[in-house]
Amino acid sequence: MKFSIEDSIGLVKEQTIALNDSFTLECGSVLEDIQIRFETYGTLNEDKSNAIYICHALSGNHHAAGYHTIHPKPDFGWWEVAIGPNKSIDTNQYYVVCANNLGGCHGTTGPRTINKKTGQEYGEEFPFVTVLDWVNMQKKLMISLGISKWFAVIGGSLGGMQALQWSISYPDLLHHCVLIASSAELSTQNIAFNEVARSAIRWDPNFHNGLYLQNGTIPDKGLAIARMLGHLTYISSESLADKFGRELIDNESHYNINKNQFEIERYLHYQGNKFVKDFDAHTYLRNSKALDYYDPSTKFAGSLAKALAHVLSNFFICSFTSDWRFPPAHSEKIVQALVQNKKSVSYASIPSTIGHDDFLVDNQPFLELLKTYLTPSRYA
To answer: b/e per residue, 197-226, with b = 16+ CB within 10 A?
Structure first.
């Protein structure tokens, strides 16, 4: 997918806020002096009513739009297709904020951060974080920025779970909640996929029972396999067939089991090797487990309807027909719970071919629907 510098928000800078108070996690652990890495796009208006928060997914980060450099090519953010001037999330109208989640590996306090008590990186000692912890961290960032209420909180996939939790935990702090290709809980199959990915990391000889940082190694092979498996679940069978088919790399088969001969094999190895250069294994293990554990109904006698009984925001929920990881039924379950509570909800199941990643690509029906929902004149 090609982006244009002319259509982008342009050059953006990372920002960091240090919180000088303690931060208590849902697991009971306490972190001191955490820092939050984030980016902002657009301009906050005088009454600070035009702020939108973007929640990133499992392997995402704070760099959602714009670019840091143009050499050798622009490093556009992961949601460049949706955020920018005149785009679906219009930075001419809105002030957009996105932060790297706690436990991440892109600047926010996480496993690679130095633990002041030991003088060493946290590594495997970094405590377990949950979706609720991320939302609580985002609320602290909100306060630091002087924002009293989000116009909208938006997220896709695991980001959608965070947006949903915002509506439950802080119902009076957001006007709109936008959930995209998301779910209120993972299916058994999804948990199984995540465990296979985590096992690949843990079984890598370079993992050293979690002590790979102390041993000066990286479980690169396991992390690459985890990414390869995950990437497969984000793309539909139809999309893979259209893009790669059964094409051979050199147009002839050599019957070599130790060599990549199909284009799809080469593509998956490229994705895996690229991921290893930019992501930490401890972060992957924690983020994927947080995804598994998320289920807001557990605190409400197993009832999602009860969990959503006190939400106040308007909801816009989107699913994609080719998404077999978070199929439309997952979104529709949330819609039904909201309808049962007589809450305001708009829902669209969008015909698609890409799969779970459809919200990250140039899916015009989705982008137009999102833009229409966020058009400021609708709320004047």
So the answer is: bbebbbebebbeebebbeeeebbbbbbbbb
How confident is the model over 218-246, as pLDDT tens digits? 999 999 999 999 999 999 999 999 999 98
Residue with tokens 């002087």: 146
CA 214 to chain centroid = 28
- Residue 278, pLDDT > 80, answer yes
Question: Which H/E stretch holds residue 247?
Answer: none
CA gap 163, 296 in Å, rounded: 12
Measured distance CA(184)–CA(158) in Å, rounded: 10
CA distances to 8, 59, 72 from 68, in Å:
12, 19, 11
In the structure, what pLDDT confidence band is assigned to residue 124 with cuts at 50, 70 and 90? Answer: very high
8 A C-beta contact, residue 366 and residue 359: yes
**How far, in Å, CA of 345 to CA of 347, rounded?**
6
Q: Give the pLDDT band of residue 252 (cuts 50, 70, 90).
A: low
For residue range 298-312, what is the model confidence (pLDDT) as tens digits? 999 999 999 999 999
- Helix axes 188-202 and 220-234, enclosed angle (nearest 10): 160
**DSSP readout, 133-178?**
HHHHHHHHHHHHTT-SSEEEEEEETHHHHHHHHHHHH-GGGEEEEE
Q: Answer whether 98's CB lies under 8 Å from 54's CB.
A: yes
- Mean pLDDT of all residues in the chain? 95
- The residues assigned a catalytic role are 157, 323, 356
